[in-house]
Amino acid sequence: MFDVAFDPEAQKEFLKLDTQAQNLIAVKILDLKNGNFATDKSLKGKHKGKFRKRVGDYRIIYLKENSLLLITLIRIAHRKEVY
What is the pTM of this model? Predict the structure, then answer.
């Protein structure tokens, strides 16, 4: 089990979304908390070391710190704006 922490900007982005999108993203955040990383992709370039989880047209960008069992949500946004 991992702890999940929101970056303040990611929290603002999450709260601005409509409730349907928030519910879908909340389910995926629970997957992260339970350690379900199978379908996630690692990012390249300036985002190296971060991962993304796909949620329909939205993406969750996060950083996984194995030694602390902590996942920091860095960005939650529509796929055309997230990178």
Answer: 0.84
